[in-house]
Design goal:
Distance between the termini of chain A: 69 Å
CATH superfamily of the largest domain in chain A: Aldehyde Dehydrogenase, Chain A, domain 1
Strand content of chain A: 15-25%
Number of domains of chain A: 2
Number of helices of chain A: 17
Strand order of the largest sheet of chain A: 14-15-16-13-12-17-18
Radius of gyration of chain B: 19 Å
Order of helices and strands of chain B: HHHHEHEHEHEHHEHEHEHEH
CATH class of the largest domain in chain A: Alpha Beta
CATH class of chain B: Alpha Beta
Structural class of chain B: alpha/beta
Largest sheet of chain B: 8 strands, parallel
Radius of gyration of chain A: 23 Å
Shape of chain B: globular
CATH topology of chain B: TIM Barrel
Oligomer: heterodimer
Number of domains of chain B: 1
CATH topology of the largest domain in chain A: Aldehyde Dehydrogenase, Chain A, domain 1
Helix content of chain B: 40-55%
Number of strands of chain A: 20
Largest interface: A-B, 25 and 27 residues
CATH superfamily of chain B: Aldolase class I
Chain lengths: ~500, ~325
């Protein structure tokens, strides 16, 4: 056995104990669901982790009613300073229970422990800390003095970053003074349900956060509920379209965080070794199940062969397997359905004439696995260059000039993220202005920070999460009504008072 | 170490450079290398540092670290007694465990080479055969501020006294002011001074003193320059300047060595030196070597640690693996 086949270094799973069954968390209590309970499994072993209740329309109704009550009776009367205290408490509890949360996320999602431990959970804490700081400073959100919360937010989150997406949704909503009904994805509900313990430890008043589980029908009932004021969704473009249709013509505010087919553009003057690492991080991070993944590599033709060679060498050192092993780089695909979709898209790529290369690795027998894969000879007209695969599959295309790079990068119905690799700062700045994507990374990829807004163009959705824009997505300006006693005063003095 | 002819790498260098190694040609070549993104490099090094090396892998790693150490004493206060103590430690690092491998070499100042050779006795030889080599710092170490004649005399003196390996310093002043040709010529000349009468040659380690080069781009350029000029090893630091060896710098130098191997098939050694004091840190270096150039490089003629206090920490960790409990500093020798 060579040194590189590092001896197993598994993280202990004894830190986490899931219950056998979970109900719905409504108004501070666990209650039974009206639908058919379903199971959540470990995608790396296919072992059943827990049985989870399904919320039907009546349950959704109860949850929204609880959130409305909590909004009117408690949360809208809680000062920003006090809301901040709860959020700081939650952030600290996330840090205290970081290992447990990371292990739970790995069990339910299949991502490697290294990522859950070093990326997901620290970012969850960072998001709560960031918005905790905002809670008593809403006057500076850019909406004028005394902005108001929207009311009840219905939030539906995906399975790729279950706990992180929960934080992206809950933290700004609560900081802004909204109450929440949140539905985690049906394949990864467990960390959200575990998170209830943290909400209770933090002493958050009952009904401020309600967590209901279920599949598409539950989510649809939630976003369509007439008493929901704000809809926040992260997931596929197809479902996002359905939501946009469902709420069209209503007063509801909405943010949609949808799919992507990001271009990662590598120029011939790029720092090559770092670019190769960035490409790997861009598409193989979280098994490529990332909406902003750099799934289209646009590489300058003159360095194409060298970059592909370096990529293949680097991918050969990636460890695919047991996500609980601290040395694993690539874990399991989240579900059988997703694995089938990735497999199908790769078959399409091969039949379209692109050349496939997959990293040599032994895949475990049980569970859902896919070896890191690169397609070269990909043409712009191929489906694998157009459609989101949402798996560890990279399509490599080439360009000759910066103009061609921009044209190809923008030639997609999506527009969530893009990457530029070049040693030349002026080129990076110029290109960043011309790329139609919500997030543009320069000489890096897949970096997230709570202070940085995140969101897309066109079929990647609308609205921004993170930073100040992420806060204003949950706020409205104070009504413009002027009290009678002040009505006679000149307008300028009122403006001055606002500052 | 057995000799390699000097002409071969030199001719290869000229072919790669496409001209004579003057300042202009070297500048064109070295400044045409891909840049280094500092944030990305450091992130990659940090990532490699999170590998979790346990049980059998850890046991192998600890023994390998011992086999790769150049056990070093480079002090003004060095005496024959100190050097004898060091060689004894190199030969039998842990008196309580005769299975402990020997270190690769002892590294001393030039005037101590004779003492080191004498006290190693029959155990003096090639570390790839389980023997212990003698490495000497030369060329007006650590500053390198002397005339070329002095540097060459310093080198010849150490080789004549029996040094197997010469650790030279580059002229950082010349490098930073763009006189690449001068740095190149000096390395070529020192390499020539490493020759012995019998036609063999001492192995040449070229110290870049990365702590004085100020940027990763410069480290990459100095690495290429040293390899082009015929260095057998590239070494991070003298240990006299902070920062000495760091994981990102070593990773960068390993990337150059990997690219050189891809381009020419030649194998160049890497030696991080200074500041590596714990087993935990040293294991990160092993991981970085294995995942960058491949584990073939974890042999004494291709990778070394320049260290002194590291050895005792490795011995304590070995004892812990063997007995299951930690002992303490009194269970390893102070030399």
């Amino acid at each position: 056995m060579g040194f590189l086949e590092y001896a197993p270094a598994p993280e202990s799973t004894s830190l986490v104990s899931f219950r056998n069954e979970y109900g719905l968390y409504i108004d501070g209590e666990w209650t039974a669901g009206g639908g058919t309970p379903f199971q959540s499994i470990n995608p790396a072993t296919e072992a059943v982790l827990a049985t989870v209740a399904e919320a039907d329309a009546a349950d959704v109704d109860r949850a929204v009613a609880a959130a409305r009550r909590a909004y009117e009776k408690v949360w809208s009367k809680t000062s920003g300073k006090d809301r901040g205290k709860y959020l700081f408490r939650i952030a600290r509890l996330v840090q205290e229970r970081a290992r447990e949360l990371a292990v739970a996320e790995v069990l339910d999602n299949g991502k490697p422990i290294k990522e859950a431990r070093d990326v997901d959970v620290p970012l969850v804490a960072a998001w709560f800390f960031h918005y905790a700081g905002w809670a008593d400073k809403l006057d500076y959100a850019g909406l004028g003095p005394n902005p108001r919360a929207l009311g009840v937010a219905g939030q539906v989150i995906p399975w790729n970053f279950p706990l992180l997406m929960l934080a992206w949704k809950l933290a700004p909503a609560l900081a802004a003074g909204n109450t929440v009904v949140l539905k985690p994805a049906e394949t990864t509900p467990l960390t959200a349900l575990l998170f209830v313990e943290i909400l209770e430890q933090a002493g958050l008043p009952a009904g401020v956060v309600n967590i209901i589980t279920g599949a598409g029908a539950t989510g649809a009932a939630l976003v369509a509920h007439p008493d929901v004021d704000k809809v926040a969704f992260t997931g596929s473009t197809a479902v996002g379209r359905g939501i946009a249709r469902a709420i069209a013509g209503t007063e509801k505010r909405v943010t949609l965080e949808l799919g992507g087919k990001a271009a990662n553009i590598v120029f011939d003057d790029a720092p090559l070794d770092e670019a190769v690492n960035g490409i790997v991080n861009g598409i193989f991070f979280n098994q490529g199940q990332v909406c902003c993944a750099g799934s289209r590599l646009l590489v300058q033709e003159s360095i194409h062969d060298e970059v592909v060679e370096r990529l293949q060498r680097r991918l050969s050192t990636l460890r695919v397997g047991d996500p609980m092993d601290k040395n694993t780089d690539v874990g399991a695909i989240n579900s059988k359905v997703q694995l089938e979709r990735v497999t199908r898209m790769v078959e399409v790529g091969e039949s379209e004439g692109a050349s496939r290369w997959s990293a040599p690795c032994d895949l475990p027998e049980n569970g859902f696995w896919f070896a890191p894969t690169i397609f070269t000879d990909v043409q712009a007209s191929h489906r694998i260059a157009r459609e989101e695969i949402f798996g560890p599959v990279l399509s490599v295309l080439t360009f000759r000039t910066p103009d061609e790079a921009v044209a190809k990068a923008n030639n997609t119905p999506y527009g969530l993220s893009a990457g530029i690799w070049s040693d030349k700062g002026s080129r990076i700045l110029e290109l960043a202005n011309r790329l139609r994507a919500g997030v543009i990374w320069a000489n890096t990829f897949n970096r997230f920070d709570p202070a940085s807004p995140f969101g897309g163009y066109r079929e990647s959705g609308y609205g921004r999460e993170g930073g100040r824009p992420g806060l204003t997505s949950y706020l409205q300006a104070a009504p413009a009504a002027v009290p009678a006693v002040q009505a006679a005063k000149p307008v300028t003095s009122r403006k001055g008072a606002a500052k | 170490m057995t000799g390699t002819s000097i002409e071969a790498p030199h001719e290869r260098a000229l072919a790669l450079l496409g001209g004579q190694p003057d300042d202009a040609t070297l500048r064109r070549y070295l400044h045409g290398l891909p840049g280094v993104d500092a944030v990305g490099l450091e992130a990659r090094a940090a990532d490699l540092g999170t590998r979790s090396i346990k049980t059998t892998s850890k046991a192998w790693a600890l023994d390998t670290i011992v086999k790769l150490i150049d056990l070093t004493t480079l002090e003004g206060a060095d005496t024959p007694g100190k050097v004898r103590s060091l060689t004894a430690k190199a030969l039998a690092p842990d008196p309580g465990d005769r299975q402990t491998p020997r270190t690769a070499a002892v590294c001393v100042y030039g005037d101590m080479v004779g003492i080191a050779v004498e006290s190693l006795g029959a155990a003096h030889g090639d570390p790839d055969d389980g023997l212990v080599a003698v490495a000497a710092v030369a060329t007006a170490f650590p500053s390198g501020r002397a005339s070329l004649e002095i540097k060459l005399a310093d080198t010849r003196d150490a080789v004549a006294a029996g040094a197997d390996e010469i650790d030279m310093v580059i002229d950082r002043g010349a490098f930073l002011s763009g006189r690449y040709g001068q740095v190149f010529d000096e390395i070529v000349a020192v390499k020539d001074a490493c020759r012995r009468a019998d036609g063999t040659s001492a192995s040449l380690k070229v110290i870049l003193e990365t702590g004085e080069l100020m940027s990763y781009d410069n480290v990459r350029r100095a690495s290429w320059l040293s390899i082009l000029a015929g260095g057998d090893f590239i070494k991070t630091s003298t240990g006299k300047v902070a920062p000495a060896a760091t994981l990102p710098v070593t990773l960068l130098m390993l990337e150059v060595v990997r690219d050189w191997h891809t381009a020419t098939g030649g194998r160049i050694g890497v030696k991080p030196a200074g500041g590596i004091r714990t087993s935990k840190d040293a294991i990160k270096y092993l991981v970085t070597v294995a995942e960058t150039v491949g584990e073939d490089w974890l042999q004494p003629h291709l990778f070394r640690f320049g260290a002194s206090s590291l050895l005792n920490d490795v011995l304590l960790q070995r004892q812990k693996l063997r007995t299951g409990h930690y002992s303490g500093p009194d269970y390893v020798t102070i030399d």
